[in-house]
Design a protein that fits this description.
The chain has 23 helices and 23 strands. Strands 2, 3, 4, 5, 10, 18 and 19 form a seven-stranded mixed β-sheet that branches. Strands 12-11-23-22-21 form a five-stranded antiparallel β-sheet, sandwiched between helices. Helix 16 crosses helix 19. The C terminus is likely disordered.
Length: 639
């Protein structure tokens, strides 16, 4: 049946409307798609390009070469050597267990090595390379390189590791480096990204730690292209880091070796300073240790051997160790009293062998006494009673003021670990430290370097250098940084009467060159080598003991300080021998030999020593582990 024309027209209108709605919707949807495509392809093109680039390109840090350390002659003390190692990047490795299993077929890795590496891989950021093994042979590295396609994320590398070619000679001064620890990171607010690289080495103690800021350098970067599987396809660019600065020290490696060798067998320390510049020419602590043991991780056996030694090889006695300075401190007391005007150089004081203070007697080391004695003879013969009397007259505050002027009770600014301040006690110091008032007896003890007074070998060397020159010279350890000379530091003239200083120096000369001097047997014969010194013996126990009758650890410490040549001072030397007994017998001969070596420039001839001492000296030197000139640095050849 035919539809009426009216119905046909109505139906056509409806279809047209639906078509228009549908067509409009399609056009609108297509417009929306086109707009979105334009937004993504034009407006956000740069952002998506960067995202794609990040998926394709990785940036890796390149550790910089650590700065080198040399002695004053240019001999290397700390250097960098090649180190073959294998690293892994977690985000590139895929199945870690499978990768490590394949790697163990090529390189000898213990279960402990794998466990440690896996732990480090999971702790670090996925893009940070983690060292699986280092100090490998070239054959092992080559094997890994050949099998690289089967080891995703694993890369053989050639890096640098620290090496100390002169082994134990500079261990306490330079210190050593080691891998960054969590403790190291916890001390830093904004740690350098370099420190996240496992086994990256930083200074742990000594100069390596104190000048980490200039020795480390700054990281470089390399851009590498990787495929969808994370495999490195090629290196796109590389920007090398900035190498750490090279340091040249004031130390002389030949003299340092001699001093270290001369102290072998003792628990001792010595400091040698140039009195004109403050340059520390040698600074030794015995016994020493090989810092190379710590670079790659010291074994339990080696560490136990060092920590259980009663001579304490890990302690730097030259700057950390503080000792009662004994009679070497009489120089300070003498200068304080004479500068205060409470005594004159020619005034004599009677020594009956003791000084009575109330109900207590303070004894002189010579029980029979020295009789009437003046400044010169009191230093030459080391009379205690003379200084008891000076201390009672001048008081402890004046003595301590003079001590600080001469460098005792001051923390000297050397880039070494745990540099001690020492103690130059005052009345206020005792009240603050012990809650007790100062007593006259405390002053008497302090006047001869006992009681509360403490000084390190560095303090005593500085004191001697200042007495020799009258200048407030400061010790200097770093000569130059990247060939830029570092300034010589001084506080200027001490402000002590030149006449008083001359009297003290003359008395110190007699200590070593007068038959009645306490160090006469430790003299040098040539006029150009004559030394001026002062012996010291500091008690370890509160009662006087016969050192031969008690165990080693209960014996007195032996001390000696000196400068030379007397007429034209060039060097100052301090020596402390722990539990060595008397300063004249244990410390003075060591200092004499050091002076002879320092001024002669090499092992000196025996004819500069007293004839009665030559056989003993020759025997001693034959047994010393000296490093002969011409030996390749780093070899353990010893004559």
């Amino acid at each position: 049946m035919r539809r009426p024309p009216k119905d046909t027209e109505e139906s056509a209108r409806r279809i047209t409307r639906r078509g228009l709605v549908l067509g409009g919707s399609m056009v609108g949807f297509m417009g929306l798609l086109a707009g979105r495509m334009r937004y993504m392809q034009v407006d956000q093109a740069e952002e998506f390009r960067l995202l794609a680039e990040e998926n394709r390109i990785n940036i890796r840090l390149i550790p910089p070469a650590r700065g080198l350390i040399f002695d004053r002659t240019g001999t290397p003390i700390a250097e960098n050597t090649q180190n073959y190692r294998i690293v892994i990047v977690r985000e590139d490795a895929g199945d870690l267990d499978l990768t490590f299993a394949k790697l163990r077929e090529l390189v000898p890795l213990s279960d402990a090595d794998v466990e440690r590496a896996m732990r480090e891989v999971r702790r670090r950021s996925p893009f940070v390379p983690v060292t699986i093994a280092d100090q490998l042979a070239w054959e092992d590295v080559a094997e890994v390189a050949v099998n690289a396609p089967a080891l995703p994320g694993v890369t053989p590398e050639v890096g640098l590791t620290r090496h100390y070619p002169l082994t134990d000679d500079f261990a306490h001064v330079v210190g050593y480096v080691g891998p960054v620890s969590d403790y190291d990171l916890s001390k830093l607010e904004n740690p350098d990204p370099l420190l996240q690289i496992p086994k990256f080495q930083i200074g742990k103690v000594g100069l390596e730690a104190k000048r980490e800021d200039v020795l480390r350098g700054s990281a470089g970067t390399k851009r590498i292209e990787v495929n969808a599987g994370g495999r490195v396809m090629r290196e796109l660019s590389r920007q090398e880091g900035k190498k750490g600065a090279d340091l040249q020290l004031t130390l002389d490696h030949g003299l340092q070796n001699f001093v270290q060798a001369r102290l072998v067998g003792e628990s001792a320390a010595s400091v040698v300073m140039d009195v004109r510049t403050g340059d520390v020419l040698a600074i030794a602590s015995a016994p020493s240790f090989d810092p190379n043991l710590f670079v790659r991780g010291i074994s339990v056996k080696d560490y136990r051997r060092l920590t259980e030694d009663d001579h304490r090889p890990l302690a730097d006695k030259s700057v950390q160790g503080t000792y009662p300075p004994g009679s070497t401190f009489k120089i300070v007391t003498a200068l304080a009293a004479h500068e205060a005007g409470v005594v004159t150089a020619g005034e004599t004081i009677y020594c009956p062998g003791y000084k009575q203070l109330g109900s207590r007697r303070f004894h002189c080391w010579k029980r029979g006494g020295h009789g009437w004695i003046d400044l010169h003879d009191s230093l030459m013969r080391s009379c205690d009673v003379y200084y008891y009397e000076l201390a009672e007259r001048v008081g402890i505050d004046k003595i301590s003021e003079m001590a600080r002027k001469l460098g005792i009770g001051v923390k000297h600014d050397l880039p070494m670990s745990a540099v001690a301040e020492g103690i130059a006690p005052t009345k206020a110091w005792k009240q603050a430290s012990y809650g007790e008032s100062w007593r006259v007896g405390d002053s008497l003890n302090a006047s001869i370097g006992q009681g509360f007074v403490l000084a390190s070998p560095l303090h005593l060397a500085v004191m001697t250098a200042r007495v020799a020159t009258g200048e407030g010279i400061r010790p200097r350890l770093i000569k130059s940084i990247d060939a830029v000379e570092q300034p010589v530091l001084t506080d200027g003239p001490l402000g002590i009467s030149p006449t008083t200083l001359r009297q003290v120096r003359k008395a110190m000369y007699s200590v070593s060159n007068s038959r009645r001097g306490t160090a006469y047997r430790s003299r040098l014969l040539p006029e150009e080598l004559k030394l001026a010194g002062k012996t010291g013996t500091s008690q370890v126990r509160s009662v006087v003991v016969d050192n031969k009758a008690v165990p080693w650890e209960q014996r007195d410490h032996a001390l000696f300080v000196c400068f030379a040549p007397y007429d034209n001072p060039q060097i100052a030397v301090s020596v402390v021998v722990e539990h060595g007994g008397g300063g004249s017998s244990a410390a003075a001969p060591v200092a004499r030999d050091i002076v002879a070596r320092a001024l002669h420039g090499d092992l000196p001839p025996l004819d500069i020593f007293p004839s009665g001492e030559r056989d003993k000296i020759a025997e001693k030197w034959d047994s010393m582990p000296l490093r002969r000139e011409g030996n390749t640095p780093g070899r353990s050849d010893r004559a």
